[in-house]
Amino acid sequence: MEKKKIWTGRINKQTNALAEEFIKSIKIDKELYVQDLIGNAAYAVGLESIGILSRDELKLILIGLKEIKKAIEENKVDFNQYEDIHSLVEFELEKNIGTPASKIHTGRSRNDQIVLDELLYIKSAIAKIVKLILDLEDLLIEKASKNLTLILPAYTHMQKAQPVLVSHYLLAYFEKFSRCLRMLFFNFQSSDFLPLGAGACVGSGYPINRQLLASILKFEKLGSNSMDIVSSRDCISDYLYTCTMIMQNLSRFAEDFIIFNSQEFSYINIDDSFCTGSSIMPQKKNPDILELIRGKSAAVLGHLMQIMALLKGLPLTYNSDLQEDKKILFNAHNETTNSISIFIELLKNTEFDKNKMLENCKGGFIEATDAADYLVKKGLAFRQAHSIVGSMVNYCIKKGIHFYDLDLNTLKKFSEFFDNDFFENIKIENCINSKLTDCSTSTQSVRNNIEKAKEEILSFKKEYNSLINKIPDFDEIIKTHL
Amino acid sequence: MEKKKIWTGRINKQTNALAEEFIKSIKIDKELYVQDLIGNAAYAVGLESIGILSRDELKLILIGLKEIKKAIEENKVDFNQYEDIHSLVEFELEKNIGTPASKIHTGRSRNDQIVLDELLYIKSAIAKIVKLILDLEDLLIEKASKNLTLILPAYTHMQKAQPVLVSHYLLAYFEKFSRCLRMLFFNFQSSDFLPLGAGACVGSGYPINRQLLASILKFEKLGSNSMDIVSSRDCISDYLYTCTMIMQNLSRFAEDFIIFNSQEFSYINIDDSFCTGSSIMPQKKNPDILELIRGKSAAVLGHLMQIMALLKGLPLTYNSDLQEDKKILFNAHNETTNSISIFIELLKNTEFDKNKMLENCKGGFIEATDAADYLVKKGLAFRQAHSIVGSMVNYCIKKGIHFYDLDLNTLKKFSEFFDNDFFENIKIENCINSKLTDCSTSTQSVRNNIEKAKEEILSFKKEYNSLINKIPDFDEIIKTHL
Amino acid sequence: MEKKKIWTGRINKQTNALAEEFIKSIKIDKELYVQDLIGNAAYAVGLESIGILSRDELKLILIGLKEIKKAIEENKVDFNQYEDIHSLVEFELEKNIGTPASKIHTGRSRNDQIVLDELLYIKSAIAKIVKLILDLEDLLIEKASKNLTLILPAYTHMQKAQPVLVSHYLLAYFEKFSRCLRMLFFNFQSSDFLPLGAGACVGSGYPINRQLLASILKFEKLGSNSMDIVSSRDCISDYLYTCTMIMQNLSRFAEDFIIFNSQEFSYINIDDSFCTGSSIMPQKKNPDILELIRGKSAAVLGHLMQIMALLKGLPLTYNSDLQEDKKILFNAHNETTNSISIFIELLKNTEFDKNKMLENCKGGFIEATDAADYLVKKGLAFRQAHSIVGSMVNYCIKKGIHFYDLDLNTLKKFSEFFDNDFFENIKIENCINSKLTDCSTSTQSVRNNIEKAKEEILSFKKEYNSLINKIPDFDEIIKTHL
Amino acid sequence: MEKKKIWTGRINKQTNALAEEFIKSIKIDKELYVQDLIGNAAYAVGLESIGILSRDELKLILIGLKEIKKAIEENKVDFNQYEDIHSLVEFELEKNIGTPASKIHTGRSRNDQIVLDELLYIKSAIAKIVKLILDLEDLLIEKASKNLTLILPAYTHMQKAQPVLVSHYLLAYFEKFSRCLRMLFFNFQSSDFLPLGAGACVGSGYPINRQLLASILKFEKLGSNSMDIVSSRDCISDYLYTCTMIMQNLSRFAEDFIIFNSQEFSYINIDDSFCTGSSIMPQKKNPDILELIRGKSAAVLGHLMQIMALLKGLPLTYNSDLQEDKKILFNAHNETTNSISIFIELLKNTEFDKNKMLENCKGGFIEATDAADYLVKKGLAFRQAHSIVGSMVNYCIKKGIHFYDLDLNTLKKFSEFFDNDFFENIKIENCINSKLTDCSTSTQSVRNNIEKAKEEILSFKKEYNSLINKIPDFDEIIKTHL
């Protein structure tokens, strides 16, 4: 069967079959069908408001669009016969309601239409991902509260550094994801403008009622320059950048947990229902999910590379290279949301092993910084204190002993400043609670920061609710305007 | 001569010479010397405020830091003997003032110190680049105003699409760069927090006066979580992303101009002082600068990939991989600022060739969309009008003529709706001015948008001024606290 | 229904449903079903040869595998109930033939099995892409021969440089793609080793007959180190690099053609059946295919980034991150093969416009290098000749004339060396044919290079045939061993 | 002072100072001075052979070039006054010897000249890096031989999988680096062609003696197509790809060692002279070098992206974007060679801790696969055996015991096939040596593979020697032709 196209006239021949298959984007952009239908509904209302469509034609169109949605959702539309989602809607509409369908493209181009669909998609995508991160942050706070005083060795260079609270560790990720949230809110704002009215690239010759369209489609602003509107994909690359950052953070969280899950560390127990076995080694309990997330972080990073390499050096205004943007966008969005979702479930089903962590604090001279601080408080300059404790560590390693095993006499040989209160000072709990800055791991500081996090998340949720109200709904538009 | 290090004590041997060369970052991070000195000055003030330093020691230190700055700027410091900029400052200070120098690292780690230096660098970098983009935007508005009614063919798919005003074209880039500005302001805000107090990773055991430090160093907020502070480089990748977007836009502007500068287009004349010749072909006048900018956009994109691939899957907290971040940051920043600077000069020295552009509007049936719109206004549905005009284009191409050459009779054969006013309607100027949306290329719309752009740039400049006030100055800190 | 897994036993719980969905790769790796079946058939033969399977069991298994293939190809297998293609084959086999199926994994792991499937895929993929490039090269030679003496301006910096033969231009791409071919042959060789016998990571405890397996599976070598075999994906990234290079070359070819197809250049006519129109601008004839190829080159580049970022810093041996490799591989392979296929068709349907190209040689002082060479041949040093001709160009531009319009007297003012033979020397055809190096554009040189290209392609085809013989065929294996 | 240029004449104005600074590449390409001098010397010989230079002029030039080399190496040349290395050589030569210098550019362009310099650089670079990898491989073989029977747990998913020999582990990297070597040899071959004779893009009008030049410059082949020669940078991206692969392998080696170096694993001891301490935590002994290598692997990957994004969609032939290639090439080469060099030293200074590794084999049921294999050998199908052993692992974990602690009665409850020889079978050494494939970790197999590796390295060294002979030497050229 001959595929239908909306641009015959100038082109004298039937498109070559291979070419047609290569050019068409319907397999990808069918994911935008709701957005395209919303856009068409709003645009029809707009056309009626300026007299291009009669009230009756508008009604026919709105009903027609509703039917198309239903047909698509019931799998009754043969996508494959169309070039793209715009053609599909226009031709399906024509099949349903005849002539009025051919007016719906008046004053509009696929160049601004696709931008509309993409902006609507991105706004929804951002809302969805914001919700997921809020869920993750709620869980982080809950886990931090529950494990407030559990102690873990903190690492630098994969070497035990100083003891830290598990709650403090979890809040570090709260901070990281909060930055992603702020970036997402910023991205939403940048994507919140009406592209319609730009036409193919120089604007429309019809008095398109842009304010009306923006209000139906719930856009805050009007795009200002037609050439910019049809040539840019900044909203996509901005969003992909944020996805990449989210995946970066998840990949680091995953890396920590993969290490913590090794038998050598054994800091966490992931529930069996979130692990897999081996087809050959019967004893294995593998953290596949975490590894897959780490792997997917590379995939999303590559998607960012794709969109940016694609745009580099492209002349104004629209070029078909841009058609490749959707696959990139959908893939990156899906990988990211799937990864957050599953990570939340895994985190819910993971417990920290208090004893193993505490036990592991014992080797490695993790109190050395506190030992140096002890000397400074007694009156030494920090650089000397640091050097003395370094020598003590060496001494102990050679003897196979630990700070606790030293007696006061021996200590005095390292520095006159040592006294009996030293041993109290370097107890693990005291190492934690002697930290004095409000960003530190002391129980008091973490308790405060949990409260602050709760306040912050409240304000994030408020902002999320306002996003939700800026996303148009197909049924609502139809209901209002029919 | 033996290189000095601030971490002897535990390590029993002299570092291997090759290893030392490999590890040391001084060749790169010397670029941070002002930031490191500022950080040290503020930190010393802070230490005095909590009694770690006496007032006299503070004075010695501040004077010592001032001398180090002078010595560096007079090329009197042998950078190569130090591992990094922090060691350099500490040891040079010790040379100058002796013991008090060894107290300056109290309660601080190189892990939070380097973050401080980098945040100070980024805040300055952003201010610098904002200023450059403001200059570019001023120039765009000026050029747009001066060339308000000049006409250029707009292109889609590198095919002439519809006529457009040069001013409208220039404002498209105004929009693109305005988005970059907003992103830069957002980046600045994200980078505006005090990292000190985080220590190596768990916070500091000293009652560091963070509010005081923030106020001296002009940070708006305090970093909240020590583990997050020392493990993150989000500010760097955020800033690099924005640099990449700026370069993307420049690369597209450059591409347009390279094409416009070809003999086949000849839309612009770049002043000879901004072109180069060929070593072999005497007739050449090459747009090297534009090509280099386009090339550098690939370089900056690669730098973004570097920082992001570097961070992927890194466990908390600090790992030395992060040491590689500075080379990436400095390179990307320098390429970007140099590219904007030179592009501004080139744009100043480039003129549009009114006649060539107008002449080129004549082939290519650039009025076809307006011809279709004409029929719609007369009562046809758009899809029919589109098809009719397509056939007319075909007809004319075969005859080697143009719309103007058709008489009314012939027109009527295509559609009854044609009338004598058709010819007036498809005059290039009318094609431009018949556009009705406020994002369109009509002279009126562009005039309005120039005014809006002027208002917007005013508010950008206000925001820029507030940035400037958030960047600390070494001399001022010294003067205030000495 | 409960999904079947091959690693129960150790894991105490049913996998969480979300986790299962996240982990399973069947949607992607089902593309490997032929490879997996081939691998199983060969492995079963191997197991029989060492007594693990009886002759009857082998027969059952081979028949069972054949039935699975049939069932898959008739869409009768519910992929979704399995975790991956290996589990699918094992469980479907069990359904068909019972117990013997549970022996087929003896001495094998999914870790070496997936590498086998991937190597078989890559070998086929390379053969397929080699064939396509050979077709493209055949076409290039044919087009070069047919258009041997057609003249085109060559460009540097998008500025007309010197005249060149279209045939020479086409052969430049022949060279580029020949490099890709050589790289593909090299990739094939690197992928031509048997991974079986590696087991999960340390080798197999069964006396797997590797020579026999290699001969059935047509591998030239045996993989040497089990830990390397299961941890590496070098063959994939090597192949993706070559795909990226192919796409790079196509993107440059596409860019040339997009420019040549602009009305301003008009050097080529792409048949209407390979162009598209605009939904709003009736006159447009857009080179979508070329733009899409250019866009896809960015996509494939991003895929290379994905696989390499994925592997960075991964500890030995197998990690599930590697599971993400297949999506990347299949996508990159498909985009690349589709792009070459369609480009071949487009090139077949594209004609060069002799007159337009020749006409365009006339402006731009394209003979300037030859003018300088003229003076050198008369005795001037090149640097002086270059400078003199530069001044002549300036003089002519100011006068609005050309070299042809100068009389001998005027010429003599520039240099005494000018004589009447100058005008003959700078005829376009003479500019072409006065080139003397064997890599140059002179008709003689190009004619020779066409002959050389023909010889080269013959030897490429021979190498291609030997590849084809190294790709195992399922039916053949079954037939031989049943 | 006015900077000198070799392309005045056509360009009417002095280049703008900022533009000049932006355009000039001397700061980067000065690294090519030897290559440029070699190229000039050979080219002069070539020009003499075709009568463009007299014998006396040639002598003057060769002596002049020798003096320039000396001056550069004695730091007596002010690089900054020149645009690029080609201009520097030409003008310095003119200063030294006057007029004959101005003949040296006859029939040559900077477009082919820079390709020559780059190919000479790459050939040297490859030889250098091949040598380093050979050193690394020698060391791997030496270490493997010395530690032949040391046992280490092999990991999959960061979970203990099966026991393996350290020697086998090291040989896995031997395989990985051997692939890099083969790729480097392939790259060398691809880079081994003479570009001279291509001129600016269409070939040269002089009878350049290409065979002679190739023989002096030690190129095996002649570049075939002038347009391809000046437009391609495939040799650079090929080489960068291989550098990225080398860094990938190093990053994985580094990752393994960072983990092995953690206190929790403690498998290796890196000599203190290759570790660093902390500025705040006195007990730290950080594997900085390994982390830096891992970080640099991201940097080199980004460089690969730079060159490839740069080339994407670039029209033929030469564009100045290509000028940016050198910075990318030099950076990637230097990071890679420095990383290999230091890694070799670190590896030399690292010892494996036999006891720690063996002790760690004891937990984690690392013998489970062998336990299953035991049952298969006794007659069970593998899938059942796998399941039974999985249950045994569960049972033991619950009881807090190990396989060794089970008595025969208990074993029999799991399977009738168990017998007393089971305990012998699952001894760690037997797990190792019961492996039967020639790619496995059995002592015999590894011993064989060490021998094979030695043979392979011999043949690599032979190939290396033949590379060395294909790299021209400046002094030798001068001596031969003076």
Secondary-structure blueprint:
Four copies of one chain form a homotetramer.
Chain A: H1 17-23, H2 26-29, H3 33-49, H4 55-73, H5 85-97, H6 110-146, E1 151-156, E2 159-165, H7 166-190, E3 193-194, H8 210-217, E4 221-222, H9 226-231, H10 234-260, E5 268-270, H11 288-311, H12 325-348, E6 350-352, H13 354-362, H14 368-378, H15 382-399, H16 408-414, H17 422-425, H18 428-433, H19 443-468, H20 474-481
Helix pairs in contact in A: 3-4, 3-8, 3-20, 4-5, 6-7, 6-12, 6-19, 7-10, 7-19, 10-11, 10-12, 11-12, 14-15
Largest interface comes to: A-B, 122 and 122 residues
Number of strands of chain A: 6
Work out the helix count of chain A.
20
The portion of residues assigned to helices of chain A is 55-70%
Overall geometry of chain A comes to: elongated
Strand content of chain A: under 5%
Structural class of chain A: mainly alpha
N-to-C SSE series of chain A?
A: HHHHHHEEHEHEHHEHHEHHHHHHHH
Main beta sheet of chain A: strand number and arrangement? 2 strands, antiparallel
Summarize, please.
The structure is a homotetramer of 482-residue chains. Chain A has 482 residues and is mainly alpha-helical.
Description:
Four copies of one chain form a homotetramer. With 482 residues, chain A is mainly alpha-helical. Chain A has 20 helices and six strands. In chain A, the strands form three sheets. A two-stranded antiparallel ribbon of chain A has the order 1-2. In chain A, strands 3-4 form a two-stranded parallel sheet. The first copy, chain A, has a two-stranded antiparallel sheet with strand order 5-6. Chain A is elongated, with a radius of gyration of 30 Å. The first copy, chain A, starts with 16 loop residues before the first helix and ends with a helix. Chains A and B meet through strand 1, strand 2, helix 7, helix 9 and helix 10 of A and strand 1, strand 2, helix 7, helix 9 and helix 10 of B.
